[in-house]
């Protein structure tokens, strides 16, 4: 572009003073030409722009984060832990206040139905804890504890009844389900407006398209923690380790919708460790204990550990650990979630928030997007 303009100016300049005039005119026109060129480049292919340029504030934010200088980094140096327990407590309190306001305005108490099939002790404790937290938030809890022998047809019949019950605003079927029961079919049988786990195909599709809907609870909780710890996410490199439908895929979509440059490491990724080291934000959800060590983490990165595994200790007791080797990663991370006390408490808090959202949807007329 510049060479063709120089040639044109030189030809024109031969009749009015030669190359000297052309050179002066070119010198005066150059800033304008550069401006036009940069504007065209940005509008035609924004993703290819020079993001180190000072014209791009989000690029400066991303660059600062990569150098360990993002906003809040000084505080992160003093307090690296992202306290999910405290955040979840505050979120649940806020939800409870909104439940009271919702009831005062509409005369309706949000109701959450939780279905458990089988007799797994850990799942029973988890489901009962959900019921307790639901009551504490001022909502109604409907528990359905079904035997291991429950057939798929019987479970689908229950889901259909809950779909038609006006007192039920949210339905959650605890996974995994017994052998012989198609979890996908059961999940998709839940009415999308009551799918508070956000796992049905309708809500998954809306998330993929960037449309409003009910988002899976664990990824939603991770996103809340990230926004609280990091602030603006646009322009940052994010790597999600793990590609499950429950966490990995929706997490990647949430990050993409926030303007991050997102990569997903999965079982077929050739060098997941090298990919992870490019991340400003590293979310790990694999179910493999202590998979991510310090060699996976770029200094200053924000690390979200979704994994949770119970292991025995030398004392004969047990403890919970995550997918990240916390003791060796924490010193080099900018911010990091602990296990326990990180992502775990956020899942139930976001389930309650989704139930309130579903209740609002039931009383608020809305048009299709």
TrEMBL record:
The UniProt catalytic activity note for this protein reads: (6R)-5,10-methylene-5,6,7,8-tetrahydrofolate + NADP(+) = (6R)-5,10-methenyltetrahydrofolate + NADPH; (6R)-5,10-methenyltetrahydrofolate + H2O = (6R)-10-formyltetrahydrofolate + H(+)
What does UniProt give as GO cellular component? cytosol
According to its UniProt entry, the protein's GO biological process terms are:
L-histidine biosynthetic process; methionine biosynthetic process; purine nucleotide biosynthetic process; tetrahydrofolate interconversion
Q: Which Pfam families match?
A: THF_DHG_CYH, THF_DHG_CYH_C
Q: The Tetrahydrofolate dehydrogenase/cyclohydrolase catalytic domain covers which part of the protein?
A: 82-197
Q: Where are the transmembrane segments?
A: 12-33
Provide the E.C. number(s) assigned to this enzyme: 1.5.1.5, 3.5.4.9
> Per UniProt, which keywords does this protein have?
Amino-acid biosynthesis, Histidine biosynthesis, Hydrolase, Membrane, Methionine biosynthesis, Multifunctional enzyme, NADP, One-carbon metabolism, Oxidoreductase, Purine biosynthesis, Transmembrane, Transmembrane helix
The pathway entry for this protein reads as: One-carbon metabolism; tetrahydrofolate interconversion
Superkingdom of origin: Bacteria
Q: Is Cytoplasm included in the keywords of this UniProt record?
A: no
Q: Where is the Tetrahydrofolate dehydrogenase/cyclohydrolase NAD(P)-binding domain?
A: 216-361
PANTHER family given in the database record: C-1-TETRAHYDROFOLATE SYNTHASE, CYTOPLASMIC (PTHR48099:SF5), C-1-TETRAHYDROFOLATE SYNTHASE, CYTOPLASMIC-RELATED (PTHR48099)
Which family is annotated? Belongs to the tetrahydrofolate dehydrogenase/cyclohydrolase family.
Protein name stated in the entry: Bifunctional protein FolD
Q: What is the lineage of its organism?
A: Bacteria, Pseudomonadati, Pseudomonadota, Alphaproteobacteria, Acetobacterales
């Amino acid at each position: 572009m510049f060479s063709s303009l120089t040639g044109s100016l030189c030809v024109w300049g031969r009749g009015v003073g030669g190359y000297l005039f052309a050179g002066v005119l070119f010198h005066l026109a150059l800033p304008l030409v550069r401006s036009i060129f940069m504007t065209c480049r940005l509008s035609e292919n924004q993703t290819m722009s020079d993001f180190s340029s000072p014209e791009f504030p989000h690029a400066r934010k991303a660059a600062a984060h990569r150098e360990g200088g993002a906003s809040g980094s000084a505080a992160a140096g003093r307090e690296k832990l992202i306290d999910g327990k405290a955040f979840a407590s505050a979120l649940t309190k806020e939800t409870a206040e909104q439940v009271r306001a919702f009831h005062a305005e509409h005369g309706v108490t949000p109701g959450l139905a939780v279905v458990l099939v089988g007799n797994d002790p850990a799942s029973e404790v988890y489901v009962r804890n959900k019921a307790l937290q639901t009551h504490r938030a001022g909502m109604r809890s409907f528990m359905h504890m079904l035997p291991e022998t429950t057939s798929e047809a019987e479970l689908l019949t229950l889901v259909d009844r809950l779909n038609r019950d006006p007192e039920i605003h949210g339905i959650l079927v605890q996974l995994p389900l017994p052998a012989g029961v198609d979890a996908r079919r059961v999940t998709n049988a839940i009415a999308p407006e009551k799918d508070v786990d956000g796992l049905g195909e309708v809500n998954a599709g809306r998330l993929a398209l960037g449309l409003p809907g009910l988002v899976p609870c664990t990824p939603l909780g991770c996103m809340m923690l990230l926004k609280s710890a990091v602030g603006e996410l646009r322009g940052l490199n994010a790597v999600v380790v793990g590609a499950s439908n429950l966490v990995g895929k929706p997490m990647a979509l949430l990050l993409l919708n926030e303007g991050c440059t997102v990569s997903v490491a999965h079982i077929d990724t050739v060098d997941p460790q090298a990919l992870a080291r490019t991340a400003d934000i590293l979310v790990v959800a694999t179910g493999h204990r202590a998979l991510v060590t310090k060699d996976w983490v770029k200094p200053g990165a924000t690390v979200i550990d979704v994994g949770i595994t119970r292991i025995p200790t030398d004392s004969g007791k047990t403890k919970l650990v995550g997918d990240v080797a916390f003791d060796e990663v924490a010193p080099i991370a900018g911010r990091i979630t602990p296990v326990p006390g990180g992502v775990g408490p956020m899942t139930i808090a976001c389930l309650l928030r989704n139930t309130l959202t579903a209740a609002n949807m039931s009383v608020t007329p809305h048009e299709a997007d």
